[in-house]
Amino acid sequence: MFESAELGRTVSKSQFAKRSTPLREELLRLQSEYMAQARRQIILVLAGVDGGGKSESITLLNEWMDPRWLITNAYEPPNEVERRLPFFWRYWRDLPPRGRIGMFLSAWYSEPFLDRVHGRIDSRAYENHLERVMRFERALAEDGAVIVKLWMHLSHDAQERRLRNLEKDPLTEARVTERDWENWRAYDRFIEVAERTISRTHTGPAPWIIVEGADRPYRSLAVAEVVRDALKRALAPLPEHPEPEEPVKKKKGRKIKARKELAEDLTVLSSLDMDKKLDKKQYEQHLGVLQADLHHLHLRAKDKGIASVLVFEGPDSAGKGGAIRRICTALYPRNYQVYGVAKPTDEEAAQHYLWRFWRTVPRDGQIAIFDRSWYGRVLVERVEGFAGDNEWRRAYGEINDFEQQFTDHGIVLMKFWIHITKEEQLRRFKAREKTPHKRWKLTEEDWRNREKWDLYEHAVHDMVQYTSTPRARWTLVEGNDKRHARIEVLRGFCENLRQAIGDR
Amino acid sequence: MFESAELGRTVSKSQFAKRSTPLREELLRLQSEYMAQARRQIILVLAGVDGGGKSESITLLNEWMDPRWLITNAYEPPNEVERRLPFFWRYWRDLPPRGRIGMFLSAWYSEPFLDRVHGRIDSRAYENHLERVMRFERALAEDGAVIVKLWMHLSHDAQERRLRNLEKDPLTEARVTERDWENWRAYDRFIEVAERTISRTHTGPAPWIIVEGADRPYRSLAVAEVVRDALKRALAPLPEHPEPEEPVKKKKGRKIKARKELAEDLTVLSSLDMDKKLDKKQYEQHLGVLQADLHHLHLRAKDKGIASVLVFEGPDSAGKGGAIRRICTALYPRNYQVYGVAKPTDEEAAQHYLWRFWRTVPRDGQIAIFDRSWYGRVLVERVEGFAGDNEWRRAYGEINDFEQQFTDHGIVLMKFWIHITKEEQLRRFKAREKTPHKRWKLTEEDWRNREKWDLYEHAVHDMVQYTSTPRARWTLVEGNDKRHARIEVLRGFCENLRQAIGDR
After folding, report:
1. Closest approach of chain A CAs to the CA of B256, in angstroms?
2. CATH no. of A3-235
3. Which residue from A24, A333, A339 is facing B59, i.e. has the nearest CB?
4. Which of A17, A124, A302, A361 makes the best surface tag, with the fewest CB within 10 Å?
5. Lowest mean pLDDT: which of A68-72, A142-146, A443-447, B365-369?
């Protein structure tokens, strides 16, 4: 794989001078256009052989371009806070907003790569990691990000020469560490893992570009040209909500059944017994017992560092807020945070739609409760057409990936769909209109959403079907009777916490 | 001070029912109005005797109000990351945006308070802390924040009863810790420090309200009423750029001299020798030596965990970017970040104007470089009238406080004003117009700013005069010759780093 990067390419001083001036001008011009458009993100990964020029390349770009809109991200092994969060958390946090260029030094390739080189993880664990990397990059690329990954290469001999030269120069000697020599001694193994990594993660939307790193002028021009091309790609318009290539075909087995049900207007919601009720006395008994349970279970979960994420979805006035409050009352306020999902801020809008939710990942036994959530993508955004067809269709997979990172990390994830019938909603809307201190809760939009009841019901059906995964199942709750719904939610959360703690 | 909070006030069950319903309705109504306006921030501090009902009060507010727009902030002793940042960093980070309510459990009052109670810090250190607290709260209040601090009180006996009752109830027993009993045994000392704390930090814009905590219904109503009143205050319009009450009077000594100079159109900039020059050969010699110096000095600073903040201000085209690049070239890109200060994002605009800069505080030997900075408040915002008279006038003090937190924390802070003459600027503008790849750098605004040259010069004069403090001096750099300016900047930074490392 690396033969062509060991050819000993060089660029003479005069060639360099001749070629670099127009290139620098072009970079500056393209960068200012890219900034003004702010349509996509550019993500530049710099990885490769130690001494191959990763760091110098970033210095070069900072010198040739406007450094105020470049963001350098380098990573140490995760600190105390980072260790308590899913692997990709810090990379999501550091993504550049659209119009900026994020330069990532090895980043999500680094630790697992070296772990594999030095035999600290096995091939299977490493393949899993590469799989997660690909999904991460794909999610960003599908959102419009331009991702370019540079592999700065040196032959074994060239690396030795380079490290010795770095050590000789007082400006760079400190950069050569024992770790670099360790990696050099493991060169063959290093290259073997690199070949596997590159061949596995070299994808259309996130390609690797191998750059011969030995000759500085050659390397500088090569890197700058890569960035120039990335800028050009980033200036291309985004596809406008493209339609899927073909209408979805009927598939065998369960899917067909689902389609058939849909055709008859039956959805997963049709099977709910919406008459379920609980009288006041029973309710209060259950409530007391379950809240005490929850209280204790959560303290034990907290001791074990188990965090929870609770998602509440449901039609307007389904009683999400009431159910959430019954949970909160049982907890210490320092241990939970309720998030109402409203319009994204402009910082959030300048990122992938899941980015804002990465900001809220709970840690250390904390509980994050979402009153509406990332499922807006496949509910309101689908029904109202805010998301293009391709966007909401691929969101199921993106959301499953997103949630898997929570559950892989040991976070308890529960998703509640609190359902009410169309008639019950009407009754509640009318009651709200009559109660002065509840009237503000009812808006024009609520009435408009009601008109699209059937469309929403189909969207819910698809959502439940495609995003109920073994460790992140949907719990459908009959909500016509608020007491029943609240008890079901509390009971469900208690059961899941108990399982997570290990009280099976 | 606490006598009136030990009167044994109670509210009967029927009184509570009667009074709570309209109060809850009012809270909901006011909260939704407050959210819609998003004009101010509400900051609620809950402190007091253990068992006094801090935590229950937050639970109550979450139950009575819409919890999606309430943010609870509780703090453990600072973690690995937080310890490496100034004390107030995490409190700034957690401030609620306008339209939300931030509830802070003890927060900036907690650790130093207990340190004082248990004799771990002396009175002088504690008084210094209270002074910093007051400045922090004042800065927020002057920006329009409504700050209310609740002291939940219990008598010695009532606290003992309360802790015993909490221990008996399975829902709350876990909440009583050995630390609570320790504080109870130190009750007299606790109260003594509390009296000092409250009397010192009870200010007009950030008052303490002492609430008798023994009777739950009484306490609940009292807390809810405090929040209701805070919401009402938060709905009041902000003063529209109020004029200072009286014209600034002449003062004795140095100030008079400054005024006199101004009258004669002399400013701190007048004393600069704008003809200073460096020939190319000298420049290249100095540059090489200083960049190598900087490189090594920074590595040593990094080893010692010394972070740096560099501020660059100056007229358009003064050469700030060029000077910054000469610094960057000497550093590893992972060790610095250049920030260009543009229009605030909407998340930033929903906070105090200094909030966005708290996001960029460097840690662990990192360097943050600002191409324009928080000084915009007293430069462009003053000259263009974006900030009201009172706003920019009080900004000098706010900025000094802000910077003091950096220097107190051991961060090396340097501020460079790179100056050019009006004639030199014209020459550069014209040159830019002629160079295709530099033309984009020149905007209409640059020409407009030029017309206000004298106003800017006076603003710079005031800025340098009021914000050159012993550990955060302005360095005025003659910039007509770019080579001279770059060398001066490099030399200045090297000197400061050397001092900070201890090479005096």
Report:
1. 40
2. 3.40.50.300
3. A333
4. A124
5. A443-447
If you classify domain A280-501 with CATH, what class do you get? Answer: alpha beta
Cβ(B101)–Cβ(B70) under 8 Å? yes
Q: Contact B69/B62 with Cβ under 8 angstroms? A: no
Instruction: Please give the ipTM for the structure prediction.
Output: 0.85
How far apart are the C-alpha atoms of A184 and B347, rounded to whole Å?
46
Q: Do B25 and A328 touch (CB under 8 A)?
A: no
Distance in angstroms (rounded) separating the CA atoms of residues A289 and A233? 59
Relative to beta strand A42-48, strand B474-478 is unpaired
Give the tens place of pLDDT for each residue, A159-188.
999 899 888 887 777 778 888 898 889 999
Residue A81 to residues A77, A85, B79, Cα–Cα distance (Å): 11, 7, 8
Whole-structure pTM value? 0.88
Helices (H) and strands (E) in chain B, counts: 21, 10
Integer Cα distance of B148 and B223 in angstroms: 11
First to last CA, chain A: 51
Supply A109's token pair.
């390739």
Compute the nearest-CA separation of B320 from chain A (Å): 12
SS (H, E, C) B345-378: CHHHHCCCCCHHHHCCCCCCCCEEEEECCHHHHH
Enumerate the domain spans of chain A: 3-235, 280-501
B134-187 residue pLDDT tens? 999 999 999 999 999 999 999 999 999 999 988 888 777 777 888 889 888 999
**B129 Cα to chain A: minimum distance (Å):** 25
- For the record, the structure tokens of A470 come out as 């073994």
The CATH architecture to which B272-501 belongs is 3-Layer(aba) Sandwich (3.40)
Are A3-235 and A280-501 the same fold in CATH?
Answer: yes
